[in-house]
Design brief:
By secondary structure, this protein is α/β, with parallel strands linked by helices. The chain folds into two domains: 18-159, Oxidized Rhodanese, domain 1 (3-Layer(aba) Sandwich), CATH 3.40.250.10; 162-312, Oxidized Rhodanese, domain 1, CATH 3.40.250. The protein is built from twelve helices and nine strands.
Amino acid sequence: MKKPALFLFGLAVSVASFAAQPLLSPTELMAKLSDANVRVIDIRDAKSYAAKHIPGAVNAPYGQWRGPASNPGELPGLPKLTTLVQSLGLSPATHAVVVSSGADATDFGASARIYWTLKALGLKELSILNGGVKAWGDAKLAQNTETTKVAASSFQPQLDATLIATKEEVVKRLNAGDSLLIDARPASFFSGETRAPTAKVPGTLPNAVNFQHDKWFAPGSSTFVSNDQARQVAASSPIDPAKETVSFCNTGHWAATNWFAMSEVLGQKNVKLYAGSMTEWSQDPNGLPMANVPNRAKQLLIDTKMWADKTFQ
């Protein structure tokens, strides 16, 4: 899809206006570690963090930012999130840098989801370490095993509704038919050939388009592409900056990468993340409309295969 030149110019201006770069290379982050306002948030599990981590990083495992097992994508309540960000010493003056393992493109989604959560809580100075701890190690930069302790802040966040698409809002957007719904999942999920364990039935949102989250990375890489390359990816995608956009997946994880690409890298202002995504949607007791839902026999085959994979793996 060809994008207007004016839009591309606007992207460059928008990206340039960010106080903090959405993506930092290891060397760029290294140069900032001496700044007392920089807080590196290592979202790996406690064991990985204890083994070695970026000097000065605090540990806040990804699971702390997620919802219950029945719906992991659900955004935790504001009181829980407030306690979490305060414990990390975060405030509007903090430049928070989110760091994941850097294992693959799916791992990047964890960083993007927490970045989105922090922005939804009102924080503006945010970055992701591009390539995560793997890239840091590959650059042969220092790591240590010292547990970092920080003073709690008194920050009182408020949720920014302009970044959050609720189930109710998605229903309204579907009825109005004026929004672009982008499914970040692999094609097998989009087409209803499989489902997430927490989803009730396979399928996708009506009139959704599929744009897989890993298109923003070089094949087999966990490093997000350059701004110029991201614009090229967007130009050949279903993305339409003129439309209100909702990014979704199974549990708001892969979708966070598409949201990050559109909102933070490309500078699109009208994109939201549907955190609950297909898990929440398919579990609705009223039976919300879906597309690409297979017949009952195919659903039983999918369920059987998922049971066998879980039981005999």
